[in-house]
Amino acid sequence: MKKIIKILISIVLFISLINLITPHVNFLLIRSIENQIAYLSNEFENGLGEKLQSRFPEGELFGNLIFALSLIEYSKKCESVDIDLIEDAILRTTSQEAKTNFTKELPLEYGAFYNGWTNFTLKKYIESEVFKRSARKNTFINLYNEISNKIIEVQRDSIRILETYSNSVWPADNLICIASLNSKNKELKKLWLEKIWTKSKSDKKLINHCGEIPSEIRGSSQALITYFLANINENLAEENFRKYKPLFIKKFIGISFTKEYLENDSSEDIDSGPILFGFGSVAMIMNSKAMATLNIKGAKSTWNFLNFIGIPVNLFGKKYYLLGKEPIYDIFLLWIAVDLLK
């Protein structure tokens, strides 16, 4: 019995060691990414989008687009990425099912979240080298131009903060729309960004979380805002990170734990995900992505921690977390991982 226990302990220690060194060894990180892609692509083929939609208001849209963005970013380092996986993921978001919870009757049809995320992903795909291999170029170019024109048209008379849902404004969603437009719209992007910052009443000089509470700032949205600012103006993104870092980020053994609220007595919601000791899961995950994008030290250590607590199973060419029960976790950790591969 003691021998069996020793063997089991040795196996656990070996697996733990492999997990800990994964982001620091390209071979292991590539294996992790490839196996995650294999697992998630199979899950999407078997209705993962519908499962996500049943759990989250934007589940099908968000899941597919984060997966597509992960593949697009990975294609910069690995030319063998299957473009059908990218294109199928994007096209699934154009279905009526993916639009179910979005309001059509808005100045920007279906709102800022839907159009911003979809258009941003299209922009990233069209600008990527892998897009040259597409047999459906016109489909994606036309879709990108169509959404871009709608976004531009709704801002033509005067710059406004666009709704995500009816009577519901989220500044970060507007930033996604800005980031999705090409360089020809430089002046519009500048004015729109200034409008967002002017509307915020935070005494920390940061963009507020939601339109209804102009003074509230939160960790998850600050991380998201920083990521999209990096896709608009990297200097602004770095400045934003420097401002919110002392307010929300606490480092412990190299891991960046990220608070959701400035006050610890606030409760979790759909934006924050689970909160433990004031630290938000969504805030920590999204902050890791922002740090990885900006090449800020600590991104690998934080992903390492998230990877480890996710109880990864990486066998037989597939990798998944949390016994396959929380696939949105898998999708986000894949999105971070592709940015760690340098």
In short:
By secondary structure, the protein is mostly helical.
Folded structure, characterized:
The protein has a domain at 205-309. Helix content is 58%, strand content 7%. By secondary structure, the chain is mainly alpha-helical. The model has no long low-confidence stretch (mean pLDDT 92). The chain has helices spanning 2-21, 26-45, 48-55, 59-74, 83-92, 111-127, 137-154, 171-180, 186-199, 219-230, 234-248, 281-293, 299-309, 327-340; strands at 163-165, 168-169, 249-252, 255-258, 275-276, 279-280, 313-315, 318-320. Strands 1-2 form a two-stranded antiparallel sheet. The chain has a two-stranded antiparallel ribbon with strand order 3-4. A two-stranded antiparallel ribbon has the order 5-6.
Radius of gyration: 20 Å
Spatial strand arrangement across the major sheet: 1-2
Strand content: 5-15%
What characterizes the major β-sheet? 2 strands, antiparallel
Question: What's the mean pLDDT score?
Answer: 92
Residue ranges: pLDDT <50 for 5 or more in a row? none
Helix content: 55-70%
Shape: globular
Number of strands: 8
Question: How many helical stretches?
Answer: 14
Structural class: mainly alpha
- Separation of the first and last Cα atoms: 45 Å
Order of H and E elements: HHHHHHHEEHHHHEEEEHHEEH
